[in-house]
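User: Predict the structure for this protein chain, please.
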Amino acid sequence: MPGTKSSGRPGGNPEIWKEAKKRQKGQNPLRISRGLRFSEQMIKAIDSGILDEEWTDIARRAIAEALREKGVNLDA
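Assistant: Here is the predicted structure, written as structure tokens:
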């Protein structure tokens, strides 16, 4: 049976934790998800690879900046 300990090959994806740890950076792990709507032009630009980093990190940073401008303390 593939993927079992008795098969000689452990199951699962050992690389999955690298991605999970990337999402948990900082002192406040990222556990809650929200959806965003984009125009077709924005999606094409994002998918083209023009951004140097993950679009979700850019969006989080922009939202955090807008919240700080409104006086929200995100470091607490």
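The mean pLDDT is 81.
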